Predict the structure.
Amino acid sequence: MKREKNKNPIGSKVYLVGGGIASMAAAVYLVKDAEVQGKNIHILEQEDILGGACDGAGEPEEGFVVRGGRMHEEHFVCYWDLLSNIPSYEDSDVSVKDESFEFNSRFVSNSQARLIKDGKKMDVSSFGLSLSDQADLLKLTFVSESSLGNKRIEDWFSQDFFETNFWYIWTTMFAFQKWSSLAEMRRYMKRFIHLVDGLHRLGGVMRTKYNQYHSVIIPIKRYLAERGVHFDMNTQVIDIDFNLSADKKTATVLHIIDNNGDEDEIVIGDNDYVFITNGSLVENTDNGSWSKAPILKDKSTSGAWLLWEKIAKKDKEFGNPGIFSDNIDLQKWYSFTATLKDTTFHDYMENFSGNVDGTGGLVTMTDSNWLMSIVVARQPHFPNQPDDVKIFWGYGLYPDKIGNYVKKKMSECNGEELLEELWYHLQVQDLMKPIVAAGKVNNIPVAMPFIDSLFMPRTLGDRPDVIPERATNFAFLGQFTEVSEDCVFTVEYSVRTAQMAVYGHFDTGKEVIPVYNSIHKPNVLIKAAKAISR
Ligand SMILES: Cc1cc2nc3c(=O)[nH]c(=O)nc-3n(C[C@H](O)[C@H](O)[C@H](O)COP(=O)(O)OP(=O)(O)OC[C@H]3O[C@@H](n4cnc5c(N)ncnc54)[C@H](O)[C@@H]3O)c2cc1C
């Protein structure tokens, strides 16, 4: 059935549940392309800050913290389209897109120290794949997604595969686990096949000038604020009523807890809409400190998962949230952000890696029980970061394992202990000891219980369509919706869902930008095939 699109949006109100980049992008497209008035758009966010996963906070004294940093690439077509409309953080005459492309032309990703063993750089010129691994990888790229069902990656490959350079590079670059969705790995192989040739040096990876809160979220927020969009902070949506009949599905009421802690209702009018970011990879994260390990929280206080669970019970087209959120042990990992009032570590890393900061990206300690990696981004990574203060980010994929040096699980370690383990792997204990003793180092660990939830094995129907069949006035946004061909754990996916929701419900005359498809380009395929046989 062809959906009727809104041709008269002037009085339409749109309520966006969640204040991550998916909702913010939807708000931009609503005002820019659908001509919805900014004053009629409400972003309802349970936290006191916008941006969701795209965070970045702190200052030199207390320490900076980013839960993660984003790698982008040239063909994030929806994301760059969005950011081509947004004036950048520091220069209103330059868009965030142009700023980022200019920045990346100066600081080109070309890692010289991608994998480390025994404190030394490994030769990664070969991916180390056997003929049968290569065949498995190629076969995976060309089978249909439906034939894979909810298989795990480890169901497809031999055990040897997981000891190859290829796997170490792959697992740590994208945060796939052996037990992650095989179907999603297939999507990544297809979607990013043009990057496979340069994967060992992070070729083609693009970054923003600063962390994404400052480079992306603040500029979008300013753009929306100038157009009158409402940001309803500390407002949690706890349930949504729908009128579900055989030929129509319509959202009718939002149940919220407002910023005073009071329950309230928002009645959805005839010409109004609700866009819901269902689920979140950064729900219930917790920050530790130099002397305290972070706490691993569960789902019981999670606005995102509880809301999705509630509404999923109302209609089978609204997906299966439990598939993604019921097994925290398979979904969690931990990151940390170190702040140093000293340049010694960064000088050492520049010498050791051969990369000026901002050009290296992930450095992975392959012999770390926690599978620890660090990233030294271009400094300063925060606009308020003084020249003599340096930061770096790190993470570990196996937080339940005991460290090689610190005899504790990663999840039990405070900021100091995490760095002790890192110094050991990089063999810089003696170098760093006096700097730590002088109190010049801080490190904030973060527990992220749902970070890999989007990679959980799934089948069609576990994620709702962006606009479910017969939905008259609502859409789902973000990482837990079904978008054919594109890959989760990317900002591109969230922005794409925003385009799909807006262009699907409103008569904008615009089409969603197609996913960049390099798999049909013979030269790309030949290069990738050569790369995996190197
Ligand atoms: C450590 C890390 C590394 C990453 N690396 C990359 C990378 O290299 N490249 C890349 O492209 N992407 C990366 N990502 C992923 C990317 O940042 C996310 O996929 C994207 O930002 C998700 O945006 P979103 O708006 O869809 O959802 P979210 O950012 O999860 O936002 C959802 C928002 O909705 C709010 N919310 C949820 N439920 C409710 C409710 N019921 N009521 C009110 N508010 C609610 C939440 O508080 C949250 O603010 C990374 C993410 C992390 C955390």
Notes: The first helix runs from residue 21 to 32.
